[in-house]
Amino acid sequence: MMALHQRQQQQKLPADAYPLSPRAASYGFFPQRTMSLFGRTGLLALLALLVLLGVFLPWTGPMEGLFFSSANRERSLSRWRDYTLAQAAAFVAKNGTVIVCAVSQPYLPFLNNWLISIARQRHQDKVLVIAEDYATLYKVNQKWPGHAVLIPPAPDAQTAHKFGSQGFFNFTSRRPRHLLHLLELGYSVMYNDVDMVWLADPFFFLEGNHDVYFTDDMAAVKPLNHPHDLPPPGKKGRTYICSCMIFLRPTKGAKEVMKKWIDELQEQPWSKKRKSNDQPAFNWALNKTAGQVDLYLLPQAAFPSGGLYFKNDTWVQETKGMHVIIHNNYITGFEKKIKRFRDYGLWLVDDHNHESPLGKI
C-alpha cells in the first residue's frame, strides 16, 4: 500500500518572508524618548508591569482578558451568529468551488482528521464547515475565522447520533437544502462526510462537465474500466449510490437533483417502523432524474466504499496506488470508526494536529 503520509515538500520561505509591519513603530506603545531598560527608571517600570500582571492575570484568565471585555467577546460571537451562507461561501471559494461538510460538536475530532488529509492536498482554504450547533460554529471560527457557518434553525443539542436514528435523519436531511443554496449562488460544490480521509487530490478525477459526480456504495468489485453511468437498480428497485461524497456543478441538472432529493425526503420521513436516512432518498432522486441530468459515477478504485477498502485486502493490494478518498462506512459507532482508522494508519490527529487549520481541538 502506498505511504499514506507522503506529501509534496513545502518550499522553504526566505528568512524575511514575513517582515515586521512598518506600522509597528507607529502604534504608540513606546515614548519617543529612548529609555534604557537597565537604567533605574526602566527597571522600576518593568517591576511595576510584572506586579500588575501577577495581580490581574489570575483573575482575567488568558492574556486577551486584559484587552477584551466580555461585551467585545459577545460582539465577536454575534458576528458569527449572523454570518450568512452567501458571505461564508464568498470568503472560502476558490475558482468558484467550495468544499463542504456538515458537523456537530461530537464529530469535531473527525473534522480535524479530515482537514489534515485535505491540507496535505493543499485544498483546505476552500473548506466550509456547516455547523449544526452553535458550539461548533464558535469553536471553528475561533480557531479558523470565517470557515464555519450555521444555517438556522439549529437542530437540538447534538450527540453522536447513531446511523438510522431520528437524530441522524434530522441531521442529514438538511444537507440537500444547503447544497442547493450554494448551487443557486453559482458555486461548484464538493460535499464530504467527515469520516473520510483524502490520500490524493480528487479534483483530478472530475473529468468532463457533468452535472453530478458520485460514488458507488457497494462492496462488490467492479472492473477497473467500469462504466461511469448510473448503475442498474438493486433488489429494492433503486441504486446504491453513496450520498456522502458528491460533486455538483451549478447547472440546471444538478439543481434538479437536489430539489428532487428534498422532495423524496419529505415523502419518506423518519418513523420508528421505517428508520429512514438521507441516502435512499438521494438514490431515488438520481433514478427519477437520470434521463434529464448528466450523471457520472467516479472510479471505484479511487473512491472505494468502506465495505470494500477495509474488508478486501486482496483488492486493496491489487489497486495499490490508486486510492484517493477512503470512506469509513460499513461500520457504526463513534469509537469503532476511530479504532478502525487507527488500525489502518488513517487516524491522523494523534500525531499530526499541527497540520490542521484548527490545530489541536
From TrEMBL:
EC number from the UniProt entry: 2.4.2.-
Gene Ontology CC entries for this record: Golgi membrane
Entry keyword annotation includes Glycosyltransferase: yes
Major localization listed first in the record, in broad terms: Golgi
Claim: Transmembrane helix is one of the keywords in the record: yes
Domain Nucleotide-diphospho-sugar transferase: 123-341
GO BP terms in the entry: rhamnogalacturonan II biosynthetic process
Membrane topology: Single-pass type II membrane protein
Top-rank taxon: Eukaryota
Compartmental location: Golgi apparatus membrane
One Gene Ontology term of the molecular function aspect: UDP-xylosyltransferase activity
Matches recorded under Pfam families: Nucleotid_trans
Class of the enzyme per the UniProt entry, highest EC level: transferase
TM spans (from-to): 37-59
InterPro entries per record: Nucl-diP-sugar_transferase, Nucleotide-diphossugar_trans, UDP-D-xylose:L-fucose_XylT
UniProt keywords, alphabetically: Cell wall biogenesis/degradation, Glycosyltransferase, Golgi apparatus, Membrane, Signal-anchor, Transferase, Transmembrane, Transmembrane helix
Protein family (similarity comment): Belongs to the glycosyltransferase 77 family.
Protein name: Glycosyltransferase
